[in-house]
Write a structure and sequence with these properties.
Elements: H1 3-21, H2 29-44, H3 48-64, H4 68-84, H5 88-104, H6 108-124, H7 130-144, H8 147-160, H9 165-177, H10 181-197, H11 203-215, H12 219-234, H13 238-254
């Protein structure tokens, strides 16, 4: 065998070995995006179980392509869907995975939102360890230069703090994104409740919280305000309860 023939044979053998040892081609990224979009549609159409399957499928496909950012996004959406359906325990597990994948993907904005949602899931199931998660969300929001995520983390931390530290945190949140409905409603509601506990007039503060709710309709915020109406009535504060109830009714009419 000539030297040229031997080199060619060796080259062909190496190509053959490389083909045999190479991993199978990853699933197309387009399939991940397609399944995620279909899951969003199923969620919006009131089919959470279908959405759950599609989000899980999108996350698995993203992992197969080594795209942790896309996997984290799908997991984050799946966790939010589980949370909206009342499955706080399942949501917590999924959102922990989303936060971890987002951190490994170097996506601090997504990691911050996953940690914020994780804190909500733990709160809904009555769990602890909220402060460390919120502080992670705050740090990630700062790294991502995301004022909304930072403001939401500060509002959450304020709920765990005593006065005057809580007032300072709420002031910071308001300065960052106080006009965003997602921030304005819980921020104003927390101020109203703190004023109420201190024995100060809180009717206008509750009214401001309800007005923020109308600007950005959120079922969880509405449930919280409705519970406040009941508490006000039990405490004999009928005028404030009636005012807040009227604002809630107007918010519902104005909601998109």
């Amino acid at each position: 065998m000539s030297r040229r023939t031997a080199v060619r044979a060796l080259g062909a053998l190496l190509v053959l070995l490389a083909c045999r040892s190479a991993p199978p081609p990853p699933a197309p990224i387009g399939r991940v995006v397609r399944d995620r979009r279909a899951a969003d549609d199923a969620r919006d159409d009131g089919a959470p179980q279908v959405a759950d399957v599609l989000y899980r499928q999108a996350a698995a496909e993203a992992h197969a392509t080594d795209r942790r950012d896309l996997a984290a996004d799908a997991e984050y959406r799946q966790g939010l869907s589980r949370l909206a359906a009342g499955d706080a325990v399942g949501a917590e597990r999924i959102l922990e995975a989303a936060a971890t994948d987002a951190q490994r993907a170097g996506a601090p904005a997504l990691a911050a939102r996953a940690h914020l949602a994780l804190a909500r899931a733990r709160q809904d199931r009555g769990g602890a360890e909220l402060e460390p998660v919120l502080r992670l969300a705050l740090a990630e929001g700062e790294a991502a230069r995301d004022p909304l995520a930072r403001a939401l983390a500060l509002v959450g931390l304020a709920a765990l703090a005593d006065d005057p530290a809580a007032r300072g945190l709420l002031d910071q949140a308001e300065g960052l994104a106080g006009q965003e409905p997602a921030v304005a409603c819980p921020l104003r509601l927390q101020r109203a409740r703190r004023a109420e506990r201190a024995g100060a007039p809180a009717g206008e503060l509750f009214r401001a919280a309800a007005a923020a709710l109308a600007a950005g309709w959120r079922p969880a915020a509405r449930r919280s305000l409705c519970a406040t109406v009941v508490a006000l009535r039990r405490g004999g504060r009928e005028a404030e309860a009636a005012l807040l109830e009227r604002e809630l009714a107007e918010s519902a009419a104005a909601a998109p």
